[in-house]
Amino acid sequence: MSELATYESFNVEVNDYIAHVQFSRPDKLNTMNKAFWLELPRCMQDIEANTDARVIVISSTGKHFSAGMDLGVFSDTKSIPMTGDPGRMAENLRRVVLQIQDTVSSLEKVRLPVLAAIHGGCIGGALDLVCAADSRYCTDDAYFTIKETELGMTADVGTLQRLPKLMPEGVVRELAYTGRKFSAQEARNLGFVNAVYPSQEALLDAVMGIARQIAANSPLAVTGCKEMINFTRDHSVEDSLRYMATWQAGMFRPGDMMKTFQAKAQKQQPEYDDLFPVKGLFES
């Protein structure tokens, strides 16, 4: 296992097959600055390539999980020119938005389950982010808002595409059109979060416990679950069943099942091989 890179926007620790990514700019309300958008997909790739992690937990520090997009991102005239040919400006902005979308999508593309532990405000771009996590948990003082509408723009990084798959569409429309806050309890009632906890400490204890349960299972079986659930969300049942059959024909091997049966017979915890690390074509 190689040493992890360091990041400006968050700290990363890997223990007992769990990668803990914790936002580390509480004095700035963990706003998502330019470094954040560049670093997060690199972090996901780093965890896959250089650690033995089998699950990722994302949490935060300070008063809020994240106040969302740092507006300084859009005032960077080097990245987003504000003068010149309108067509070229528009083409450039489209590419910037696609890059930001890819950052959020990195949580879906990483083969490991991603659990979001949310406290305080989860605002704007932060809501985009947690919508891409596999599961969400929060404190009872947490709240969520599609803040972009109040700022005079349409949310463009994934909330409007993912949230209707996670809660009733009519509610999502109301939240998007009004920009109002919705509470932890409302989020729980709508099925957006799995559970609500009385404190950040209790939240992290519980989410780490769930992460340990995931990490104890066959990593090949778990990554297969993530692949199938993501595919099914965006395809028909028939297409998804066909893909499942193809996946099973290629990926299923009895080795992990035999380890499970043997461990149960001996009343022990099964020990599974790690997945091969995700490397670039010519990386060693």
TrEMBL record:
It holds the Pfam family ECH_1. CDD domains: crotonase-like. InterPro entries: ClpP/crotonase-like_dom_sf, Ech1-like, Enoyl-CoA_hydra/iso, Enoyl-CoA_hydra_C. Belongs to the enoyl-CoA hydratase/isomerase family. This is Crotonase/enoyl-CoA hydratase family protein.
